[in-house]
Design brief:
- It catalyses: O-phospho-L-threonyl-[protein] + H2O = L-threonyl-[protein] + phosphate.
- Keywords: Cytoplasm, Hydrolase, Lipoprotein, Magnesium, Manganese, Membrane, Metal-binding, Myristate, Nucleus, Phosphoprotein, Protein phosphatase.
- Its cofactor is Mg(2+); Mn(2+).
- It is a lipid-anchor.
- The chain is of the alpha+beta class.
- The protein folds into two domains: about 290 residues, PPM-type phosphatase domain (Phosphatase 2c, domain 1); about 90 residues, Arc Repressor Mutant, subunit A.
- Helices cover about 35% and strands about 25% of the residues.
- It has ten helices and 14 strands.
- Strand 9 and strand 10 form a beta hairpin.
- The longest helix has 25 residues.
Length: about 400
C-alpha cells in the first residue's frame, strides 16, 4: 500500500479511570501508519438514568479517520437514546431487548452518517470497525462490527471472544454474493478486508437490499454474558493491529502476568502496544483494558521475578557488547538476535522477549550514548529469531 512511515511514531495517547466497581486503562499509538485512524470511547455511568452502566469501545478506521471519530463521539448516544433501547430499560430490562436496542443504535448512526455524507456530496469514503462492551450490573454485552476484537478473561482463562467479520466467512460471503459482489483475495470485491463496518457507503448502494443485506453491513453481533462476580477478571478491547501479532490466549496470559507486577492499567496498556509493535505489527494500535474486582493482584513474588529478569537482561546486554571487543560495538539488532537465540527464564508469557525490548534498549543506549537509533530499519520487530534474516 505504501502508506507507511520510515520510522514508527511511538508517542501514545493514554487515559484511565474507575467507577461502578471497574478500573480501566487505555493506550493508542500511530505506529508505522502515515495517519492515525483509530478512536476509542470510555464512559463510566451512562446517560438517561443508567448511572450503574458503563460503555467502552475501540474504533479502527480505514480510508480516513472521519467515521471512527464520529462514532467515538456519537455512537453511545445513538444507542442509549433510541426508542428500542429506551423501552428495554424502562420495562423489565430483558437481555434480548437491550441487544435489539444496541443493534438499532448502530443502524441509526450509520444512516445518519450516510445523510451527512450525501449532503457533502459523498466526499467521505472512510469506514470503521467497532468493538465494544456495555456493562450493566448483571450482564456484559459484547458488541462487534468488523475485525477488531473483544475478549473476557474469567477464572484464569479466555472465557469468551468476539468473532471477526471477514469476507471469507461463509455467512458473510453469502450476503456479499447475494448483493451482487464477490470475495477476491479475501476482500470484498478484492478491495475491503472487512465485511461489516460503519461508513464505507460505496459498498452500501445495492438497490432493493436493506441496510443489513449490503456488501458491507453495519449490523453488529451482540452477545450477552451474565456477570460472575467472583471469577470475572478483565476485558480486552483492541483493533486488529494488536490481534495480528498476538493470539487470544497469548494476550490474556501477558495481561495477567503484567497485572501481577503493577496496578497501573495505563502502563499495562502501553506494554501491550509496545510489545505488539516489536512483534511486527505495522498497523495503528489501540487497546482498552477493563478490570473487574477479580482481576489478578500484584504479587511480591512476581515483582521479585520481574526485577531479577530485568537485571539478568541488563547483565547479558553488557556481556554481549564486551564480547565483541576490538570488533567495535555491535548494533542493537545483533544484541536482540543473540538474546532471541538463548533460553531466558521467566520471560512474560505471550510477550516473551519482545515485551522486554525497552529494557534491553535502555541499557544498550546507556552503554552507547552516541550510537544512532536503529529502529528506522523495519526489521527491528521480531516474533522469532529468524525474523532478523534479510
Amino acid at each position: 500500500m505504501g502508506a507507511f512511515l520510515d520510522k514508527p511514531k511511538m508517542e501514545k495517547y493514554n487515559s484511565h479511570g474507575e467507577g461502578n466497581n471497574l478500573r480501566y486503562g487505555l493506550s493508542s499509538m500511530q505506529g508505522w501508519r502515515v495517519e492515525m485512524e483509530d478512536a476509542h470511547t470510555a464512559v463510566i455511568g451512562l446517560p438517561h438514568g443508567l448511572d450503574p452502566w458503563s460503555f467502552f469501545a475501540v474504533y479502527d478506521g480505514h480510508a480516513g479517520s472521519q467515521v471512527a471519530k464520529y462514532c467515538c463521539e456519537h455512537l453511545l448516544e445513538h444507542i442509549t437514546s433510541n426508542s428500542d433501547f429506551q423501552s428495554a430499560i424502562q420495562e423489565d430490562t430483558s437481555v434480548d431487548s437491550v441487544k435489539n436496542g444496541i443493534r438499532t443504535g448502530f443502524l441509526q448512526i450509520d444512516e445518519h452518517m450516510r445523510t451527512i455524507s450525501e449532503k457533502k456530496h459523498g466526499v467521505d469514503r472512510s469506514g470503521s470497525t467497532a468493538v465494544g462492551v456495555m456493562i450493566s450490573p448483571s450482564h456484559i454485552y459484547f458488541i462487534n462490527c468488523g475485525d477488531s476484537r473483544g475478549l473476557l478473561s474469567r477464572g484464569g482463562a479466555v472465557h469468551f471472544f468476539t468473532q471477526d467479520h471477514k469476507p471469507s466467512n461463509p455467512l458473510e460471503k453469502e450476503r456479499i454474493q447475494n448483493a451482487g459482489g464477490s470475495v477476491m483475495i479475501q476482500r470484498v470485491n478484492g478491495s475491503l478486508a472487512v465485511s461489516r463496518a460503519l461508513g464505507d457507503f460505496d459498498y452500501k448502494c445495492v438497490h432493493g437490499k436493506g441496510p443489513t443485506e449490503q456488501l458491507v453491513s453495519p449490523e453488529p453481533e451482540v452477545y450477552a454474558i451474565e456477570r460472575s462476580e467472583g471469577e470475572d477478571e478483565f476485558i480486552i478491547l483492541a483493533c486488529d493491529g494488536i490481534w495480528d501479532v498476538m493470539a487470544n490466549e497469548e494476550l490474556c496470559d501477558f495481561v495477567r502476568s503484567r497485572l501481577e507486577v503493577t496496578e497501573d492499567l495505563e502502563k499495562v496498556s502501553n506494554e501491550i502496544v509496545d510489545t505488539c509493535l516489536y512483534k511486527g505489527s505495522r498497523d495503528n494500535m489501540s487497546v482498552v483494558l477493563i478490570c473487574f474486582p477479580g482481576a489478578p493482584k500484584v504479587s511480591p513474588e512476581a515483582v521479585k521475578r520481574e526485577a531479577e529478569l530485568d537485571k539478568y537482561l541488563e547483565t547479558r546486554v553488557e556481556e554481549i557488547i564486551k564480547k565483541q571487543g576490538d570488533e567495535g560495538v555491535p548494533d542493537l539488532v545483533h544484541v536482540m538476535r543473540t538474546l532471541a537465540s538463548e533460553s531466558i527464564p521467566n520471560l512474560p508469557p505471550g510477550g516473551e522477549l519482545a515485551s522486554k525490548r525497552s529494557v534491553i534498549e535502555a541499557v544498550y543506549n546507556k552503554l552507547n550514548p552516541y550510537r544512532s537509533d536503529d529502529t528506522e530499519d523495519p526489521r527491528f520487530s521480531f516474533k522469532h529469531s529468524e525474523s532478523w534474516a534479510g
